[in-house]
Amino acid sequence: RLHLRPPATIRMHAVMHPQYATSSNACSGTARRLVFRRASGTSHRGFPHRKSEKRRAVRFMPHATAAASDGLPTLYDVPVSNNGARVRLILYWKDMEHLVSVKNPSELGGLKSETYLALNPQGKMPLLVMTPDEDALPHGLALPESEVIAQFLLEKYSQIGPELIPGDLHQHALAMLATRVHDLYIAPVQGCMYRGPMGVAKRAEDIATIAKQMDAVEKIFADAKRLRLNTHTENDHDDDDTTDGPFICGPEPCFADAALFPTWIFMERILPTYFGWDGVFEKRPLTEKWFLAMAADTCGARVLGEIRGGLNDWHGAGRWETTGVNDAVMNTEYKWKY
User: Fold this and answer.
1) CA–CA distance, 231 with 223 (Å, rounded to integer)
2) Hey, how many other C-beta atoms are within 10 angstroms of the C-beta on 338?
């Protein structure tokens, strides 16, 4: 179990992109144990968060070409990116914004620029560019793929802030499974909710896949809770509330929560608004409890605001009209609501 830390103010580094700088103190507050509750008549916010332990000294050598000018490692990302938000949430939870600069890929000419493609041939984000130090290549290590970046940061900066790794072997396995389900079966098809052009049949098929995988994730929540309940019964600790969650693996968040939550922000907003769902939590009570807890956690709320702001911009720009989503959903030959 992670230890609680004294309150501290999250500091946004000066080179942070302005789109992120609007919420520089969003993760500050009084540290106390997380207890899930839904505030009546209020939106998802106000959840206190644990604070990080005393930071160790980290030495950086002269910066790489694409790293920040002050020698910090650089995460190339934008606020609406759910994959990038996985990494940002880890940075927020671990109070590491003074150690990593976040920049828009446009500062390298965009995702398809020659400079960016030299660092990530896939032309996608997020991308972490390290400064040359004892752990990186002489010219600076460029790491794409959100899960790779997340695990790299958790390992490299393991002595900073909360571990975000379940201590129990079985809970750790379920956290990896939840992440795997997301990365293999949800992330590849999530574009059906907002991209185009796309065939109507393909879009409908992918929407069905998302619904199926949401049920698969609910089962992982149930398995994790059942495992905690069995352990709780065997140990007979009456004062132990770890069976209640509300996070994937218990009362403290981990890397799997960071992986799933940003994508659920997309689904919670898009599927009811544009595909007619009554909600995304019907028959998924554990997922709903988890989502509310994540949205109420101060760092989770920050990511929620970043992504929702981007989705609002997409709506204002008419994205669901121009990508053909609205026209597709009018085709009653296919099922859109689950």
Assistant:
1) 12
2) 17
Sheet holding 74-76, edge to edge: 101-103, 74-76, 127-129, 142-144
Under a CB-based contact definition with an 8 Å cutoff, are residues 146 and 87 in contact? yes
8 A C-beta contact, residue 185 and residue 217: no
pTM for the structure as a whole? 0.80
Report the relative pairing of strands 101-103 and 74-76 from DSSP bridges.
parallel
Q: Kindly state the tokens that stand for 92.
A: 């927020």
Instruction: Identify the DSSP state of 74.
Output: E
Closest of 172, 23, 149, 139 to residue 76, by C-alpha: 149
Place of tokens 């379920």: 174
Angle at CA of residue 85, ends 163 and 215, nearest 5°: 85
pLDDT > 90 in the chain, percent:
70
Structure-block tokens of residue 198: 């796309």
User: What phi-psi label fits residue 205: left (phi over 0), alpha (psi between -120 and 50 degrees) or beta?
Assistant: alpha
Question: What CA–CA distance (Å, rounded) separates 194 from 198?
Answer: 10
Cα-Cα end-to-end distance for the chain = 37
What is the predicted pLDDT for the residue at 296?
A: 97
Categorize the per-residue pLDDT at 2 as very low, low, confident or very high, splitting at 50, 70 and 90.
Answer: very low
| Mean pLDDT value across residues 161-188 | 98
Task: Note the pLDDT tens digit of each residue in 212-271.
Answer: 999 999 999 999 999 999 876 555 555 555 567 899 999 999 999 999 999 999 999 999
Distance separating alpha carbons of residues 211 and 336, to the nearest angstrom: 10
Helix axes 298-316, 255-275, angle to 10 degrees: 30
> Which residue, 130, 149, 150, 148, is CA-closest to 139?
130
Please return the burial class of 211, using the count of CB atoms within 10 Å of its CB with bins 0-12, 13-18 and 19+: middle
| Peptide bond connecting 6 to the previous residue in cis, omega within 30 degrees of 0 | no
Confidence of residue 8 (pLDDT cuts 50, 70, 90): very low
Say how far apart CA 118 and CA 291 lie, in whole Å. 37
Measured CA to CA, the distance from residue 137 to residue 64 in angstroms comes to 10
